[in-house]
Amino acid sequence: MELSCKNEYALLALIELAANYSSGDPLQIRQIAAQQQIPDRYLEQLLATLRRCGLVRSQRGAKGGYILAREPWKINLLEVMTCLDGSDAQPVEKSSPSKTVEGTVICEIWQEAHEAVNSVLQRYTLQDLCEKRDARRQLDIMYYI
Prior knowledge:
By secondary structure, this protein is mainly alpha-helical. The protein has helices at 5-19, 29-36, 40-52, 77-85, 101-123, 126-144, and strands at residues 56-59, 65-68. The protein has a single domain, classed as Orthogonal Bundle (Arc Repressor Mutant, subunit A), CATH 1.10.10. It has 6 helices and 2 strands. Helix 1 (5-19) packs across helix 2 and helix 1 (5-19) packs across helix 6 (126-144).
């Protein structure tokens, strides 16, 4: 399984929003795009998708922008991936009959892998990503001293 560019950019934007959550101030697309080096137009589309899923809210006006719709510790990565990938992320149905024993074995393994991925993604929240980022930054600072 590969992390798509769309998912990576969305998670980068959500990390920025999560890190800024406590201030209560919305972030503008250009701020997020500059900080995370994401193309503005693409970020705009991603944030619109995340808004439709109820993960972020938009605020209009001069001080407008985007903020998380819920606390960072209440948004898990599985929600984000499901929002972005939709039903494409679902594995082959168990009830679909396979023509061969080999096909059945492959479907069973694929299902197990899918469940493992979902378990990991459900375990981590945006808050966890921010904490891991902050810990990594601390390690980088210590490394250079």
